[in-house]
Design goal:
Pnp Oxidase, Chain A; 21% helix; 8-stranded antiparallel β-sheet; 3 helices; 131 residues; alpha+beta
C-alpha cells in the first residue's frame, strides 16, 4: 500500500475510473492518503463519481510519474464517514480546506477494501502487489 501511495503522491494527478451503467467514467483526482494501513481518496458526496462508487464499488486508478513508469490500481472502495478520518484527510491535503470542512455534509472519503496495484514501465518487468 505504501508504494502505491508514494507513487500517486509523486505523480500528483491520477485518474479514477468508475462505471455508470455500462459506460466507463474517468476523471482526474489529486488527493490521496493513508489511514490505518488503507489507501484513501477524497471527493464530494454530491458528485456523480461518489454516487457511482456507492452503486458499484469497483474502481481503477492510473497515473504516470516523471520517470516514465505508470501504475494501475484495481479494487473496490467503501465510504468511511468517521470524523477522525476526515481530519486526517484534510491534514494530508490542506489545500482542500478552502473547499471542504469536516462537518459540511458533502466532504467524503473512501478507502480501498481490497485491491491490486501494478507498476509498469517500458524498461522493466511489471511489479504487482496487493494493497
Amino acid at each position: 500500500m505504501k508504494k502505491a501511495l508514494e507513487f500517486l503522491q509523486e505523480s500528483g494527478t491520477f485518474y479514477l475510473a468508475t462505471t455508470e451503467g455500462d459506460q466507463p467514467r474517468v476523471r482526474p483526482f489529486g488527493a490521496v492518503f493513508e489511514y490505518e494501513g488503507k489507501l484513501y481518496i477524497l471527493t464530494n458526496n454530491t458528485k456523480n463519481c461518489f454516487k457511482q462508487m456507492l452503486q458499484n464499488p469497483k474502481v481503477e486508478i492510473s497515473s504516470m510519474n516523471k520517470k516514465g513508469q505508470w501504475i494501475r490500481i484495481t479494487g473496490e472502495v467503501s465510504n468511511d464517514d468517521r470524523r477522525e478520518v476526515k481530519e486526517v484527510a484534510l491534514e494530508s491535503a490542506p489545500s482542500l480546506k478552502s473547499m471542504y470542512s469536516i462537518d459540511d455534509g458533502i466532504f467524503a472519503v473512501l478507502y480501498f477494501t481490497k485491491g491490486t496495484a501494478t507498476i509498469s514501465s517500458f524498461t522493466a518487468e511489471p511489479e504487482t502487489f496487493s494493497l
